[in-house]
Design goal:
By secondary structure, the protein is mainly alpha-helical. It has a domain at 300-359: Arc Repressor Mutant, subunit A, CATH 1.10.10.10. Helix content is 76%, strand content 3%. A three-stranded antiparallel β-sheet has the order 1-3-2.
Length: 392
């Protein structure tokens, strides 16, 4: 049961809480970071009248709203640190841990990954002593985010594994499970295992969609589509967006990633570059997508070249370079690489500066068939020898 103040009834405390949270919602809608700092400071006399549980809830929610307001990083960081100190002075250990977790999320937004890592390591030691499993899961999820951005994938994998182990022994809300699935997908996508990443992003998307959390659902859907694109399966993306899904998630983020998928389907590098120029915020500023753009660009460059030279048996390299508006040296180097990687059956003539396409030799199954036949005969002869030994 909640501890009741001697001066106020439960209904009166609920009224105070409601008034403060109503102001907080208005400040969040107005994106007023300074307003949150004033609201929390002005509410200190009211906190003295409320129980610890209600006070902790109000402060935590206000801080969570505050860190979601974009920009004004210095003001947000200062406010969060002030309330960490307030929690220490008031000896509110669990509230302090929650606010410090919010500070770690703020550091992630500010891309202060070393600060974030240091803070999370300190939090991890404290929370392990308290044995708060749910808070441990949250810390490990944030830790995996941090390590992925630091390109430390072994530690990111260790964090995701730890989060899953803790989640197996305690109930975690669906929203937290969705976050864990999303980070698992991010990890596998960074490790280039896009098939496994797709399954995790799909689980995450379904959870967010079921919880009507559209913002996070869009992020999961975008990464889900990217996983199909990176597997070179743009046709699956077309199948995915049928009916309700197309109408519900027809946002700039999804339109952008579908434009990338379309460029891959058409094997058109110009379409890819046009998508990047049209949707820089949705593609280049999203780390999950941006970290794969170079590989996608390279793949599309190869496919674009393949599409152009397909009709020819002999073609001038300068002509190909002119068609895709690139330097001859760049195109020649890429064609040479494709030939060496056996992605293209052709030869480059340095004297004529031409590319000569050759037919790939038909693959013969004679060797494998002969090997199987001889292995079968060996087994028959061994069987006959065993039977002959029994007759003796």
């Amino acid at each position: 049961m909640e501890e009741v103040s001697t001066s106020l009834s439960i209904d009166e405390m609920k009224q105070i809480e409601g008034e403060i949270m109503e102001k907080a919602h208005k400040l969040f809608d107005a994106k007023d970071a300074d307003g949150f700092a004033r609201l929390l400071n002005d509410s200190k006399p009211q906190f003295a009248k409320l129980t610890n549980t209600r006070t902790a809830k109000i402060v935590r929610l206000c801080i969570e709203y505050l860190i979601q307001i974009p920009g004004v990083n210095e003001e947000r960081e200062q406010t969060v640190n002030e309330w960490i100190e307030w929690s220490k002075d008031e000896k509110r250990a669990f509230l302090r841990l929650r606010i410090e977790l919010c500070l770690a999320q703020l550091y992630y937004q500010m891309e202060e990954f070393q600060k974030m890592r240091t803070l999370l390591m300190k939090l991890l030691k404290e929370v392990k002593r308290l044995d708060d499993k749910r808070l441990l899961v949250e810390i490990h999820i944030l830790e995996s985010q941090c390590f992925i951005r630091l390109r430390d994938l072994p530690r990111a994998r260790a964090s995701v594994t730890s989060a899953r182990m803790e989640a197996n022994v305690v109930y975690i809300p669906p929203l937290m499970q969705a976050r864990l699935d999303y980070m698992s997908g991010m990890l596998y996508s960074q490790e280039k295992d896009f098939k496994t990443a797709y399954s995790y992003f799909y689980e995450s998307f379904e959870a967010y969609d079921g919880l009507n959390n559209k913002e996070q659902a869009i992020s999961a859907l975008k990464m889900l589509v990217l996983s199909k694109v990176m597997q070179n399966k743009p046709e699956d993306v077309t199948t995915l967006f049928t009916g309700k899904l197309t109408l519900k998630y027809n946002t700039p983020e999804i339109i952008a990633i579908r434009a990338i998928s379309s460029s891959l389907d058409h094997r058109n590098l110009d379409e890819f570059q046009a998508a990047l120029n049209t949707y820089p915020k949705e593609l280049k500023e999203d780390y999950g997508v941006a970290s794969h753009l170079e590989q996608l660009s390279d793949t599309l460059f190869e496919q674009h070249l393949s599409r152009i030279i397909e009709p020819y048996s002999v073609v001038e390299i300068a002509y190909v370079a002119q068609l895709i508006n690139m330097k001859v040296e760049v195109v020649e180097a890429k064609l040479a690489q494709m030939i060496l990687d056996k992605k293209l059956s052709a030869t480059l003539n340095q004297d004529t500066q031409c590319l000569t396409l050759t037919e790939e030799p038909a693959k013969s199954n004679l060797f494998s068939t002969s090997t199987e036949l001889m292995e079968g005969m060996r087994k028959i002869l061994d069987s006959l020898a065993q039977k002959a030994s029994l007759i003796k």
